[in-house]
């Protein structure tokens, strides 16, 4: 939504500047538009990191599944984790 607002800033400025529409309270000044643009960039990085971490977790979970298929263990002899082996 922030991408949309920054992209269509001229139209939004025109709409909020029109007194007959009653949207003057929602008009952003130059500093507020700068904050919106900066926030948009921060959120892009945050989204990238979230997606990257999500994919990394999926790869890790896939590795765990493959490992457990390749190296089965006796889950009854373990108290903590099924693949930790026997515990005393």
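Sequence proposed for the structure above (88 residues):
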């Amino acid at each position: 939504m922030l991408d949309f607002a920054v992209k269509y800033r001229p139209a939004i400025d025109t709409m909020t500047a029109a007194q007959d529409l009653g949207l003057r309270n929602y008009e952003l000044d130059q500093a507020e538009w700068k904050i919106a643009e900066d926030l948009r960039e921060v959120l892009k990085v945050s989204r990238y990191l979230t997606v990257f971490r999500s994919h990394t977790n999926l790869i890790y979970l896939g590795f765990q599944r493959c490992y457990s298929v390749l190296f089965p263990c006796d889950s009854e002899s373990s108290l903590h984790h099924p693949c930790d082996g026997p515990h005393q």
